[in-house]
Each structure stands twice: as structure tokens, then as C-alpha cells.
Design goal:
Elements: E1 4-7, E2 13-17, E3 20-24, H1 39-62, E4 70-77, E5 84-92, H2 102-109, H3 113-119
Antiparallel strand pairs: 1-2, 2-3, 4-5
Amino acid sequence: MEIIVELNGKKKVTGRFGGYEVVTDQPSADGGDGSAPAPFEIFLASLATCAGFFVQSFCQTRGIPTEGISLIQRSERDENTHLVSLIQIEIRLPASFPEKYRTSVVAAANQCSVKKHLQNPPKMEVVAKVV
């Protein structure tokens, strides 16, 4: 996969890939306009939405209605490093959700490929080329 990134002035950056466009900005407190999510917010959102995809697929495969199901992701930062030290995803299920699947739906959310990449991170390289 190739992503083309454009620097759009001030703190705005846009990534284009596969016919899509992801626009990012920084909060006004960090010199941006706050006009779009920051890249790290998109990263965190990718974890939550990936888990949501797996929960939805789990339910659809078993004919379980998805109405009333939601996920809430919360994160905590380490005071010293300022890095995220805990990410928790809470799956909220309606009372009608079959009890026999409550443990399994958590296992389904844990199949998220974004999470798996964090657990086994790829090698990363940054290079500069004069063109």
C-alpha cells in the first residue's frame, strides 16, 4: 500500500491512498487550527473501529442484532513519558445479547488486526531522497 502525503501549511497534513483522503491537523493549543483529528487520534480511532468491525462481523455471522451494541475506547497516558500506557475498549451490550456469546464477542474484538500489529510491530524505516 502506498500513501502519498501532502504538507498543507500550518499544521495540516493530508494522506491520499486508494481514492481516499485523510486530513489531519493539530489542536489549536499545539499551533494548529483544530480543523481535523490529529494523526495520533486517527491511530487510536483505528483501534476502536477495528474492534467494532470484528464485533459487528461476529454478530452478523450468528444472526445477532447489532442494535444497541456500542464500543467505548478510553486511553490513559503515563505522566512521565506522556505516552499512552493503557487502552481499554468496553463493549456495551444490550440485555437481549445472548449470554452464551458474551465471552466470545470479547475474543472477536481481540482479533483486530491493528491491535495485532501493535503486539508484533513491523520494522519501520524512514529514508530521505532528493528527487
